[in-house]
């Protein structure tokens, strides 16, 4: 009997965490999936859009706990596409922003398998926006850096030092374990009073926010027990947020009294 299965892989961005921020195109792709391979940062509520009979495989990575290596994930995508046909690879945020999506697509295409990419709403912009932080604002910040705090060899990105020298907003993902090093780089640039926001589990019901300055944020993180997954935002735009403005007005008044 002739094999009629047509392998296809759709790489889908799951958005920043809130399942309502999933795109309509992503919902349509999930609705016809035979297999869904999903990451730790993809909200599991999104799996409800896939058919009940679809196979759901968790392939997430957390610090010190990888369900599968990247090579194994690549092979799982291919094997499931060849066996079951329509595979959705569901990745947090946007799969092409610190998501290794391009690597997975390249591997799949090397087998001649059809691929489709559905972008997701990136946490780089959506998570700050959830706190009223516009990462660019006329007269305040005309550009922004989006940086991974931890590189593939587990070191702090050298771009952080360059970003600390600029007037741009700096948004750092996967940087909580490098936070003391990040703060030290900004202090070296005499930016101790620069506003900082740390947003943990952004856009979800478990969201936690810590705000302060370069000089105070480490103490705030300790007091509020903030941890990964979180986004670090450094820049004057943090002070401009209507949600956070009250904190900085109070902070400045205390500084004047001192």
TrEMBL record:
<protein>
    <recommendedName>
        <fullName>uroporphyrinogen-III C-methyltransferase</fullName>
        <ecNumber>2.1.1.107</ecNumber>
    </recommendedName>
</protein>
<keyword id="KW-0808">Transferase</keyword>
<dbReference type="InterPro" id="IPR014777">
    <property type="entry name" value="4pyrrole_Mease_sub1"/>
</dbReference>
<dbReference type="InterPro" id="IPR006366">
    <property type="entry name" value="CobA/CysG_C"/>
</dbReference>
<dbReference type="InterPro" id="IPR003043">
    <property type="entry name" value="Uropor_MeTrfase_CS"/>
</dbReference>
<dbReference type="InterPro" id="IPR035996">
    <property type="entry name" value="4pyrrol_Methylase_sf"/>
</dbReference>
<comment type="similarity">
    <text>Belongs to the precorrin methyltransferase family.</text>
</comment>
<dbReference type="InterPro" id="IPR000878">
    <property type="entry name" value="4pyrrol_Mease"/>
</dbReference>
<keyword id="KW-0489">Methyltransferase</keyword>
<dbReference type="GO" id="GO:0004851">
    <property type="term" value="F:uroporphyrin-III C-methyltransferase activity"/>
</dbReference>
<feature type="domain" description="Tetrapyrrole methylase">
    <location>
        <begin position="8"/>
        <end position="216"/>
    </location>
</feature>
<keyword id="KW-0627">Porphyrin biosynthesis</keyword>
<comment type="pathway">
    <text>Porphyrin-containing compound metabolism; siroheme biosynthesis; precorrin-2 from uroporphyrinogen III: step 1/1.</text>
</comment>
<dbReference type="Pfam" id="PF00590">
    <property type="entry name" value="TP_methylase"/>
</dbReference>
<dbReference type="GO" id="GO:0032259">
    <property type="term" value="P:methylation"/>
</dbReference>
<dbReference type="InterPro" id="IPR014776">
    <property type="entry name" value="4pyrrole_Mease_sub2"/>
</dbReference>
<dbReference type="InterPro" id="IPR050161">
    <property type="entry name" value="Siro_Cobalamin_biosynth"/>
</dbReference>
<dbReference type="GO" id="GO:0019354">
    <property type="term" value="P:siroheme biosynthetic process"/>
</dbReference>
<keyword id="KW-0949">S-adenosyl-L-methionine</keyword>
